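#lab-general

N.A. 3:47 PM
ok so I finally got the sequence cleaned up, no stray characters, all 197 residues accounted for. can someone with queue access submit it? mine expired

B.Y. 3:52 PM
send it over

N.A. 3:53 PM
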Amino acid sequence: MDPRRVLLLHGWQGSGDGHWQSWLAGELRGAGHHVRFPDLPECDQPCPDKWGATLHEELAALAALPGEGERVVCAHSLGCVLWFREASRIAPELRVDRVALVAPPCPGAKVAELARFYPTWADRDAVRGAAGHTRLVCADDDPYCPGRGAVHHWAEPLELVVDLLPGRGHLNVEAGYGPWPALRDWVLGGVPAPVGA
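B.Y. 4:20 PM
back already:
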């Protein structure tokens, strides 16, 4: 089996050394898989156009990696919103096999630095067209998605598969997500099984 080709998209302010994305990058590289984990531009004051341009460049680079291994995207937080925003513009040849969107924030969070990313204009068909399988991984108490949460705001209108992890907050370092073996197993699995805590 060819090595997986994996793109990790961080959120607002990036994902530092203790974050599950940094851990996952190390695990996958150590196992011989291809990993792209770009520093998205100006991550403290993110610009949706700059982030969008970088996403398309990274998808092209992912497709150009050697082998025929699955192309997999794992996004966290604002990286998920970026995916929603750009889904309709992803070229067919850059379509990936699987996507995990972890803890997407909602406009109701009222974080000034994120405001320019809304509205996303995402629709079900665009999200389905960007990947063979897309799943949303979220908690029911994410402070960046208040009110009725990510299931109501994203999963229901976009008809996404959901892995709900109760009481896990923003699924970041503060919530205890450094090493995350279940997500590593999902990336490496051949079947899009659920992502557990």
